[in-house]
Write a structure and sequence with these properties.
Helix 1 links the parallel strand 1 (7-11) and strand 2. Strands 2-1-3-4 form a 4-stranded mixed β-sheet, covered by helices on one side. The chain contains 8 helices and 4 strands; from the N terminus they run βαβαββαααααα. By secondary structure, the chain is α+β, with helices and mostly antiparallel strands. 32% of the residues are buried. Helix 1 crosses helix 8 (192-212). The model has no long low-confidence stretch (mean pLDDT 96). Bound molecules: glutathione (GSH). Glutathione (GSH) binds next to loops.
Amino acid sequence: MTTSDRITLYYSPQTRATGTRVLLEELGAPYDLHVLNMKAGEQRQPAYLAINPLGKVPAVHHRGALVTEQVAIYVYLADLFPEAGLTPALDDPMRGAYLRWIAYYGSSFEPAVIDKFMKHEPAPPTQSPYSDYETMLGTLEAQLSKGPYLLGERATAADILWGIAFRWTMMFGLVPKTDVFERYAERICSRPAFQRVSAADDEMAAQHAAAAG
Ligand SMILES: N[C@@H](CCC(=O)N[C@@H](CS)C(=O)NCC(=O)O)C(=O)O
């Protein structure tokens, strides 16, 4: 990679961008953070809305292109660094399952968890993108029970996404703390990359709170 190949991650601590930073660390990728103080509302200022009109992080800028949405970002970054071994190759029989579980996060899990968080009446199963909450979560739990990772013995970028998602959603009481989910989240979050980023996040979040007054 040349200098211009460096990855810029639009970032705020203790958000969905944390997982992307963990993935970059896992991949050994060269990256720079563009930090936004969300406590001061910087993600909603014109400067950032010109980059991502949704005002959301993570967003990644690389080789002149912007990638938003965690699902796209995880696939994109893991494919950039195949030597890290966190992505099945295009001709790997596991590629389909890998893409399935990454997409499941954005298409089924997030809408279900947000409905639950907002106490929204879910749409009927035939209209809802995730059928119903119990079926959506039960399908995941059944897959993870085969463990130790989503694809069995092999850890992939999908596990970085999911392990951290379980940690947060269990913390907020949006996902029940079953043995399967707890052990899985612990397996991912005890890895050195998560530990490093989490410690840096604590520090950055405290600085942001102080700066925002
Ligand atoms: N669909 C987006 C959602 C990202 C998202 O919700 N990010 C939150 C942080 S956890 C955010 O940037 N919120 C700031 C805001 O909306 O003002 C993705 O999957 O990347």
